[in-house]
Specification:
Bound molecules: zinc ion
CATH topology of the largest domain: Beta-lactamase
Number of strands: 25
Number of helices: 25
Strand content: 15-25%
Largest sheet: 7 strands, mixed
Structural class: alpha+beta
Radius of gyration: 33 Å
Amino acid sequence: MANRKVKKFSIKMQKKLVVLFILLLAMFIGLAVRLVWITRENETDYQKQVLSQQQYTSTAIPYRRGNILDVKGTRLATSEKVYNLVIDAKVMNYKSQYLEPTLKALSENFDLDMGEVREHVTKNKSSSWYVPLRQLTYEEISGFQEAQSADSNIQGVWFEEEYRRIYPYNSLAADVIGFSGRDNVGKYGLEEYYNDILNGIDGREYGYLNDDLNLERTVKSAVDGYDLHTTIDANLQMIVEKYLKQFDDEQKDSFTSGNGAENTGCVMMNVNTGEVLAMASYPPYDLNDVRNTDSLLGTRLLEEVTNAAGYTEIRKTDTIITQEVVNGLSEEQLYVNLNYLWQNYCITGTYEPGSTAKPFTVAAALEDGVIAPDLNLECNGVMEIGDYDIKCHNGPEGWLTLEQAVANSCNVSMMKIAQALGKDEFCEFQRIFNIGLKTNIDLAGEARTASLVYVADNMGPTDLATNSFGQNFNVTMIEMIAGFCSLINGGYYYEPHVVNKITNVNGATVQNIEPRVLKQTISESTSELIRQYCRAVVEYGTGKTARPAGYMIGGKTGTAETIDPNTHKRSETEHVVSFIGYAPADDPQVAIYVVVDRPNSDKQGNARYATKIVRNILTEALPYLNIFMTEEVTEEEQQELDALQQSIIGQYAPTAPEGSQEDGQGAEGGEGGTGEGAGGEGGDPQGSGQSPEGGSPEGNGQEPEGGSQGEGSEGGQGEGGALPATQGESVPNPDIPVNPNLPTNPNMEE
Ligand SMILES: [Zn+2]
């Protein structure tokens, strides 16, 4: 027998046993590793669970998400403590004398369906968790709390604390701020970029029986999130948004139905620090009600399609969104469109800059030494590059100084300058000016443009020529204004930023974010020349209409065509117009950039759509910034200023709900914040109505425009508000090859 048994364990079987043993061993090791891993990963959870088995109570204490403040401490985003009403039927039924007084107190202090509550507490006597009301304010619960402290028979009701995110100014600076919901996960803007800084750590209150069976409580306090101190000035922001809205009011439905433009954006920046003072795109949306579809009305419907390569992409359709369209949208379709609305055009939209790129071209050539400041250039109206004739929109201009070439926005001069510079240097200077690179502004969602600019290796002569005047490459607004500031401030490229200080709940500084000079793009002397040329643009060139009464500013206009998605050629009717500038002309303090993407007009290619917005904003913003007038004001301008003064009286005061400035309880402030308050759209109830539209100089034809070279196409007319037929800064040759990398669906990057 023994022999047999031994035989049973043949070599083969022994091998099998060893394998089995090893397998089991491996499984145990695996389990052990997994166990260690699980306990490590979930240590706090397990601790809590273990605690919860010994404890009497354990309540989470929520942290408070940090505030977002403007440069003067005005709260743009804040979190208000709110209370959820919790009914503990078990306690309420613990003694018979508790039930009726408690139900009575509930009915007297809250708007509750008492039949429902009574049914719940009588049918679910062991239930400890029933929440009939959420997010009550302190005022709303205080009556009950008083009753509760006066009557010890009121039992089984308590209040769970949480925070509600509130934006006291509704849509103001929506693009910059972004939003965050109950989950404290920020979306877009500062809320997303600084999500971890704004969030804190939940605390916990434990109650447990000690060795003597006495109830002891320990509290692990919540750690509140940090506050963000931004460089945004809420007043400037209101001014900017007011005039973007005014533009939309004037221009919407004027050629086709829908908004005043596909996109309109404005950025104001401190020239000498890179701090963003105001940033907005139109249309805005209400941060307290982000899914409200009203802001979509008048915009172009987007659809998600699968393209030939099998990828899904977002495309613009020809449909303008109306309420009817909204009603027919599926949840996904709605989300695609809301998602686009929530984006910040100033950092995500990409487009061809057009002639605002000319100061960059000239600065590069001067800095490189291939041209001298006393250079004269001959424009005979057209230049042959490769197989193409590229015209100057001005026609033959004869001999021009460098200043005149910029002031008149002469394309031929720019092509000659770029030729002198050569493609290698041209591309290198684009990188020096940070064109094609992210600026790394502290906002979520900045577009990449690396694939939308040329590198020397793939740049042909026509590409160099068209790039010289701002075509065939794409930029973002933030890229342009950050680079432009360096052109005019002595050559210092500052990293654009929005937050300059982070503090904790006690107000102590956690981090100071100082302006950061990343590089010197050009020399002081080149910068001085660029200021001279940009001033000439406004003094006698294409940018006269941007000048606010009483001030001299510098800047540059821009017009570019969009690219037709079907033909992949330049559209002859669709344009992106812009103005980039600064004030004062002799000592730049503040830069401004306005882009109007496809204004709603049968003649889109007119930079005046942008210069007029700039002029309106600066007229109101410069006095606010304590920048003094240096220029004579004509009688007519004075009348205009007086009328403006009338319209803005009171504008800076009562736009926010009470309590949004102070760091107080803030409960009542929040209530106002969710309403359709006045703040968002500029907060000026009389604003657009009383503004002296018809009386503004750019509309009345008094300025002697149209005579001098280069602006014939721009000036002259001016029956209030009606703009001249063409402005013509773009290339009137749609056959010139288009950079194949440029998106045909503009502004749909990322
Ligand atoms: Zn010319």
